[in-house]
Fold this sequence. Notes:
By secondary structure, the chain is α/β, with parallel strands linked by helices. It contains nine helices and ten strands. The strands form two sheets. Strands 6-7-8-3-9-10 form a six-stranded mixed beta sheet, sandwiched between helices. It is globular. This is ABC transporter ATP-binding protein. Keywords: ATP-binding, Nucleotide-binding, Transport. Residues 13-242 form the ABC transporter domain.
Amino acid sequence: MEQSLSDKRDVVLEACDLRHQYGDKAVLRGLNFKVAAGEIYALLGGNGAGKSTTLSAFLGLIRPTGGTVRVMDQDVTEAPDAARAKIAYVPENVALYEHLTARENLSYFLALAGADASASRIEAALEAAGLAPDARGRRVGGFSKGMRQKTAIGLAIARHAPVLLLDEPTSGLDPRAAADFNRLLDAARSRGMGILMVTHDLLGAAEIADRIGFLADGRLEAELTAEGEARFDVRALHARYVRIGQTDAAA
Length: 251
Ligand SMILES: Nc1ncnc2c1ncn2[C@@H]1O[C@H](COP(=O)(O)OP(=O)(O)OP(=O)(O)O)[C@@H](O)[C@H]1O
C-alpha cells in the first residue's frame, strides 16, 4: 500500500483518538489524523463540527476528554507550554497591538518569546511574508485583514516556528488577496513548515492543500490526498461537503 506524506516525513501534529465534550455535548468522538513537516492539511467540516475545538486541543487551550494530541512528539496535555512554543497560530482575526507598527509588533512578540528580535531578522521575516516595505513602519491599526495575516506569518517565520495553525485564514479576503495568501502558505510549506488549516474555502483548499480531512460527527469522515498537478476536483469536494452537511443535519 502506498504510504501517505505523513508516513514518509516527520509528523509534526498528531491527533490520536481525540475526544472532547463540552458538558454533555460530545463534539469530538475519536478523531485521528497526522500532519507532516512540509505539508498543508486542510480540515473541512460544517459549522459546529469541532474544527476550532481541534485547534484548541493542539494549542493546549482545552484539556481533551480523551485521546491524545501531540506537537512534534510532545504530548500537549503533559507539556502545553513546550508544545505551544513550537506553534505559530493565526486566528481568524489576528490580534496585534494596534498602536504599534508591524516591525514593533514583531519586536515585542519576539522579545516576549525570548527570541532574537534584531532589526535584520524582523526585516527578513516581513519580506518573506510579503508585507510591503512601506507598510512595515505603519501602525497596524489601519491594516487590512490580509496585511495583518502577513504580519502574523512574518512573526511565525521570525520565530522559526515549525508548525502553523490557521483558523479560517481566507474568510473575508478578496480573491486576489486569498491567492496572495495561498502563495505565502506555499512558501511556508517549502520552508518545511507543517501547516494545519481550518477552512470553509473549498477552492483555496483544493488549490493549496496536500491533504483534506472532512470532519463530521466528531470523526474524520474522509481523508483525500492531492494527486499530481490536478490536485483536487473542487466540484467533487463541494458535492462531498454538501453531503456531509446533510448527514450532520439529520443526526
Ligand atoms: N466553550 C464551549 N462551551 C460549550 N460549547 C462549546 C464551546 N466551544 C464550542 N462549543 C460547541 O461545540 C461545537 C463545536 O464548536 P467548534 O467551534 O469547534 O466548531 P467549528 O467546526 O469550528 O464551527 P464553525 O465552522 O462554525 O467555526 C459547537 O456546537 C459549539 O457550539
